[in-house]
């Protein structure tokens, strides 16, 4: 079993920065991929970024590329999402997710169904 707990959300002004954290507990595997998704009010949950737990290789959606940075600290079992140059359209509940890599699949995992475990989400609100 794997548990994911996000933190770090809040209210921030447009152009500002915030860093989200996701603490992972339970089983993980060297083939794991960790991801961030977000869901704005009335919209579907969208892919934001992912990171290979072993190699730290990142992948970003076009909407956040160049503004957000995903990273992980294996010693702390924690993944981060550094968000800068924030825009009001970045307002959403942000979720972290884990794919344990037990089933072979594509290296880029942009869809919810590709993830096995989810956190409860943390709200980020960007004011204009």
If you average the pLDDT, what whole number results? 94
SSE ordering: EEEEEEEEEEE
Ends distance: 40 Å
Instruction: Specify Rg, calculated over alpha carbons.
Output: 14 Å
Bin the helical content: under 10%
**Largest pleated sheet:** 7 strands, mixed
Number of helices: 0
Shape: globular
Number of strands: 11
| Class from helix and strand fractions | mainly beta
Low-pLDDT runs: none
Binned strand content: over 45%
What is the fold's blueprint, element by element?
Elements (H helix, E strand, L loop, with lengths): L1 E6 L2 E4 L4 E9 L6 E7 L5 E8 L5 E3 L7 E6 L4 E6 L8 E8 L17 E2 L3 E6 L1
Parallel strand pairs: 2-11
Antiparallel strand pairs: 1-3, 3-8, 4-5, 4-9, 5-6, 7-8, 9-10, 9-11
Characterise the protein shown here:
By secondary structure, the chain is mostly beta strands. The strands form 2 sheets. Strands 2, 4, 5, 6, 9, 10 and 11 form a 7-stranded mixed β-sheet that branches. It is globular and about 40 Å long.
Key phrases:
single chain, 128 residues, mainly beta, seven-stranded mixed sheet, four-stranded antiparallel sheet, 0% helix, globular
Summarize the structure.
The chain is mostly beta strands. The chain is built from no helices and eleven strands. The relative contact order is 0.31.
């Amino acid at each position: 079993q794997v548990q994911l707990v996000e933190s770090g959300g809040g209210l921030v002004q447009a152009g500002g920065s915030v860093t989200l954290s996701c603490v992972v507990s339970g089983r993980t595997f060297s083939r794991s991929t960790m991801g961030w998704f977000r869901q704005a009010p009335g919209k579907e949950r969208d892919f934001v970024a992912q990171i290979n737990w072993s190699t730290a290789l990142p992948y970003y959606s076009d909407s956040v590329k160049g503004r957000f940075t995903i990273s992980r600290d294996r010693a702390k079992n924690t993944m981060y999402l550094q968000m800068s140059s924030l825009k009001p359209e970045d307002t959403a509940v942000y979720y972290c997710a884990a794919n344990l890599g037990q089933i072979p699949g594509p290296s880029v995992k942009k869809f919810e169904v590709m993830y096995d475990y989810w956190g409860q989400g943390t709200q980020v609100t960007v004011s204009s």
